Amino acid sequence: MRVASSAVAAVRRSKWAAMAASTWIQCASGGSYCFGVYSPTLKSSQGYDQSTLDSVAFFKDVGANIGVLSGLLISSRAAHGRTWVVHLAGSAQCFVGYLLMWLSVTGCIPRPPPPLMCLYMLLAAHAQTFFNTANVVSAVENFPDSRGTVIGIMKVIAPPLLWRSLIL
């Protein structure tokens, strides 16, 4: 029994388990990739014209591509070797940003002015940089001789898996 539990613990801590978990996190955290799926609902429920929706989309792109805070966090002494801290920060941002957008779309809270909706979108999309940073750093540390391959797996394979699941 003790051997079996130590084998399970070793698998949980293996670099392959971390790679599989990172790939699934990449698949699940791609909400900003799906903006085209939910933007018509956002546009109609908030009474936006195309120009306003384009502004929200712009802040989605800004949030998804400015990963300075996630880089600073993973480089900090507090998170060194603890990618879960970076994942937790990203999860909190993702939850708050998309929750506020959802509450706005469903009418649970008053319709926010467009700049506030842009902030919600920026916050939700910015969470993606935390997931990307933690996953890529973890993969590079676990597979130093195959850095390009593991980064490619996460950045090229994971988003199409998300899109395929939405289409099917």
TrEMBL record:
Species whose genome carries this gene: Ensete ventricosum
Name of the protein this chain belongs to: Nodulin-like domain-containing protein
Membrane topology: Multi-pass membrane protein
GO CC annotations, alphabetized: membrane
Assigned keywords, A-Z: Membrane, Transmembrane, Transmembrane helix
The Nodulin-like domain, residue ranges: 15-155
Pfam family name, one: Nodulin-like
Subcellular localization, as worded in the UniProt entry: Membrane
Domain of life: Eukaryota
